[in-house]
Amino acid sequence: MNTDPRREPLAIPPAPDGSPPLVHAAALSKSYGHTPALSGLDLDLPAGRIVGLLGANGCGKTTLIKVLAGLLADWTGEVTIDGSAPGPETKAIVSFLGDADFLDPALRPGQAIELYSRFFADFDADKAWETVRFFGLPTDRSLKEMSRGMGQKLQIALVMSRRARVFLLDEPISGVDPVAREVILGGILRDFDPDALMLISTHLIADIEAIVDSVVLMRDGAVLMAGDADDLRERHGMSLDALFRKEYR
């Protein structure tokens, strides 16, 4: 344990009940050709947390999320989700929102909900419809007839309507205006299971600061700093947004 007050914390505190971390990574490394994306990353994330994954573009946030989602191979080190290596077993308990559109643009909301119902045994179609109504999405339009913000809201409605244990959201509020960001975050938090784990990757720190319990700051493919949001604010005497700007300027 880090007991030196001058050193930055590198770990999020474990669950109060002492249960093992829901997400565990040790000495995790991944390269694209000769370019390293993750460099010996160590990270433990307990259940019951909303964690902000922060860092400059190219620091490895998306690569980490894709490894946890079971979408990347050829990495080295150790990774477990609820005790199992990424694979079919973990995909059954992980709900993933990527940084790119993943739905057929010809689909209308009802068709997208029907598709998810067929693919995921833990999908709650009623919750998806409730979230679609919460977002005020038109049900008679296809994705290609919607704005980018509307399309993003539909994808979030689908991802957040699974009864998953881990939610991995890669840049869920990028590319939309500030008002839409606030609405999207409201939809993400709507009826969120307090015993689940949510990892949100973003560079829009000010927008998520009020909702995260913990943060992980990455640099050059490794953890630069990690801890409870309140502890880091108190330690540095500034907001997480100001801390991010200080570390990455």
Automatic annotation (TrEMBL):
<dbReference type="Pfam" id="PF00005">
    <property type="entry name" value="ABC_tran"/>
</dbReference>
<protein>
    <submittedName>
        <fullName>Adenosinetriphosphatase</fullName>
        <ecNumber>3.6.1.3</ecNumber>
    </submittedName>
</protein>
<dbReference type="GO" id="GO:0005524">
    <property type="term" value="F:ATP binding"/>
</dbReference>
<dbReference type="InterPro" id="IPR003593">
    <property type="entry name" value="AAA+_ATPase"/>
</dbReference>
<dbReference type="InterPro" id="IPR003439">
    <property type="entry name" value="ABC_transporter-like_ATP-bd"/>
</dbReference>
<keyword id="KW-0813">Transport</keyword>
<dbReference type="GO" id="GO:0016887">
    <property type="term" value="F:ATP hydrolysis activity"/>
</dbReference>
<keyword id="KW-0547">Nucleotide-binding</keyword>
<keyword id="KW-0378">Hydrolase</keyword>
<dbReference type="InterPro" id="IPR027417">
    <property type="entry name" value="P-loop_NTPase"/>
</dbReference>
<keyword id="KW-0067">ATP-binding</keyword>
<dbReference type="InterPro" id="IPR051782">
    <property type="entry name" value="ABC_Transporter_VariousFunc"/>
</dbReference>
<feature type="domain" description="ABC transporter">
    <location>
        <begin position="23"/>
        <end position="245"/>
    </location>
</feature>
